[in-house]
Write a structure and sequence with these properties.
Blueprint: E1 4-10, H1 14-27, E2 30-32, E3 35-37, H2 39-48, E4 54-61, H3 63-69, H4 73-90, E5 98-107, E6 110-119, H5 135-154, H6 156-181, H7 188-201, H8 215-231, H9 233-250, H10 257-272, H11 281-291, H12 299-337, H13 350-371
Antiparallel strand pairs: 1-4, 2-3, 4-6, 5-6
Amino acid sequence: MPKIILHSQFFESQKHVLNYIRYLAKQGDLFSGLQDIPLSDALKMMQKYYNTVCWRHVYSLKEEDVKRLEIDRDYMKALIESQKNEIAKALHISPENLILYASYHNVAHHPHLHFVMRSKTTSEGFVVKKKGEKLEDAFKFSREKIKSSLANQIFREDLLHIKVKKADTKQSLNEQTKLFLNTHFISKEIFEHLFQLEQDLSVIQGKKFYGYLPANIKQQVDEILKLIVETDSDINTLFKQYRTTQRNLIDTYADNEETIAEKLSAWESSFFHPKKGQDTSRHNIIVRYALNFSSRENYKEIQRYKKEMYRHKTRQAAARSMLYHIGQSLQEDTRRLSGVQYYSPLSKPKHMVKKIQKEIIVDQVKSIEVGGKL
């Protein structure tokens, strides 16, 4: 499997930037895309925009991949030229403001590409750190966007069969999901979820597509998809194959097992809980099916389910009522045994309860008078 490694960091001072540019020029001639750049011109440009953030990257390849793909300096010049916009975008730099100088070193056992980049304006050339996110994770996100854009270009032919297989597996997953839902041999748990989803979809306004649904209904759809994958052996097998193709793609640019595990976890999360712009094809299949769930084919089963739910709720209500009255009876017995007179409000009408309470008070007053303790 092809593999690349990318190391990235920003310079802490302008002095480091200039020294690094000189070092690169000693290792090999500088270039920016297809154009060769004299060292003096590169130094002047870097000095002119000294107050912007400057980044450096080292892009390493396997020696066998370099030989197999016949990668050389001209190849790298063409690669940088074709991917300049994507590289700039990863660090929020406008293509027209991008300053980039590179040098390719094809040393034994360690062929690699150095490139430094900065923007002409101080408002660009940064990474976005989300709330609660570590700074290193923000760096990693931008670094992997650069790595992915270069890897996809270098290994496009190697990755083509993986991408084709992934697309075919995705199509099979969608077709198998449709087949599963239309067999009418779904489990009771999935049946209940689909029935509830239909009820909830019937009361909302607007487009009935996954991307437009409220968060709580999206969660129902996600749960149904997860149950389908866990329930049906054919779909589960296809899901594992789909996951394997994604792993193969990640392998081209991931550095270690921890990174691979993180990427796969993120991919699996997007499979079941897609965000805006991600694949929702299977989720929309479920939504469309749920919209017509009470069709003639399901009518008898749904009526049976409604009766079963009614009996279940009736039994629950009866049980609650019985337990309540048992509790009231136990309270009355306890108070009777302890010598405390007590009348349950449930056993008498309200006007009778007030009358009984008044008679009890009068009796207590009389007993006190007779005893002479008033």
